[in-house]
Amino acid sequence: MGATIPAAKPLIGDDERAAVDRVMRSGMIAQGPEVAAFEREFADALVDGRDCVAVSSGTAGLHLGLLAAGIGPGDEVIVPSFTFAATANSVALTGATPVFADIDPVTYCLDPQHVESVVTSRTKGIMPVHLYGHPADVTALGALAERHGVQLFEDAAQAHGARWQGRRVGTFGSFAMFSLYPTKNMTSGEGGMVSCASPELIRAVQLLRNQGMERRYENEVVGFNARMTDLHAAIGRVQLGKVDAWTETRRRNARFLSEHLEGVGVPVVVDGAEHVWHQYTIRVEQDRDGFAAALLSEHGVGSGVYYPVPNHELPSFGLTIDLPETRRASQQVLSLPVHPALSDEDLERVVAGVNAVAKAGA
Ligand SMILES: *Cc1c(COP(=O)(O)O)cnc(C)c1O
């Protein structure tokens, strides 16, 4: 058994290091020309030119996007419970109430039918997550939002470059957020990018990012410091040039795993979806945690559980509603290494390990 194969691995090269050094030498390291260039380049590369605002994290992006869209106390926004806590947290931070809906067991993304059943007169928005890099059904969810006169927002934290029915995710909602955290499909160290459907939303997010001011000391609204630095933007610009090739490698790795894994439920890509494989997630019907432990100790294969606790059950929300597909997914999912740093030998080891543990447990 060789060294442990990690579940995720950020790829940082000499060119990222050189970009940081270039900014350091310029003497201007806070938000400036690098951030402006990153926003333009990200817009052109990943969201069909839709205007973007860079912020300090994906969470800040969701929070500011929701505030800019007018979400606040008394409002409800429908979100999945099967996601990272930042999705519902960002709704709660505006003073609005996150309302949790169940997922489609095939895509792990919001189930439009269940979403419909939790719409109330207070609903102001629906925020699907393109979980694991598989796009949510934004056609059905968008139609539903329109029928009820509410907005669609996209948590695209895990889905840089994914498409739904030929169109890029991040171009469907009033706004969309992409995370640039190190384990995501591309990184800026920490950071987030918000794409917006209108110039008014762009301006509102820009104001909220910087203390509510466009012109210095003429603060128009109460805002945050959620700026991205030029150091982070410089890393992000280099990564942006690599993300398409990484996505191709992720797709190749996912194809290999699906062709060779036996005895576990492999992920499904539904019609109309172009998956970017942030995670390659199998279902283990019995003793998922024992399966993961054996995979690591006997085969040196790292894995991850995203996410073991449905968000509505976290102490921070503490709700007792029943979302059966969310519960089942949280008990069964296991994400295997699929990242672009894997060698052919690593992939063979992942397959051999998973197949052996599945067979032993059968
Ligand atoms: C990572 C992530 C976020 C938050 O992004 P940060 O950059 O870590 O703040 C939000 N939603 C989902 C689904 C994520 O995976």
Automatic annotation (TrEMBL):
<dbReference type="GO" id="GO:0008483">
    <property type="term" value="F:transaminase activity"/>
</dbReference>
<comment type="similarity">
    <text>Belongs to the DegT/DnrJ/EryC1 family.</text>
</comment>
<keyword id="KW-0663">Pyridoxal phosphate</keyword>
<dbReference type="GO" id="GO:0030170">
    <property type="term" value="F:pyridoxal phosphate binding"/>
</dbReference>
<dbReference type="InterPro" id="IPR015422">
    <property type="entry name" value="PyrdxlP-dep_Trfase_small"/>
</dbReference>
<keyword id="KW-0032">Aminotransferase</keyword>
<feature type="modified residue" description="N6-(pyridoxal phosphate)lysine">
    <location>
        <position position="184"/>
    </location>
</feature>
<feature type="active site" description="Proton acceptor">
    <location>
        <position position="184"/>
    </location>
</feature>
<dbReference type="InterPro" id="IPR000653">
    <property type="entry name" value="DegT/StrS_aminotransferase"/>
</dbReference>
<dbReference type="Pfam" id="PF01041">
    <property type="entry name" value="DegT_DnrJ_EryC1"/>
</dbReference>
<dbReference type="InterPro" id="IPR015421">
    <property type="entry name" value="PyrdxlP-dep_Trfase_major"/>
</dbReference>
<dbReference type="InterPro" id="IPR015424">
    <property type="entry name" value="PyrdxlP-dep_Trfase"/>
</dbReference>
<keyword id="KW-0808">Transferase</keyword>
<dbReference type="GO" id="GO:0000271">
    <property type="term" value="P:polysaccharide biosynthetic process"/>
</dbReference>
<protein>
    <submittedName>
        <fullName>Aminotransferase DegT</fullName>
    </submittedName>
</protein>
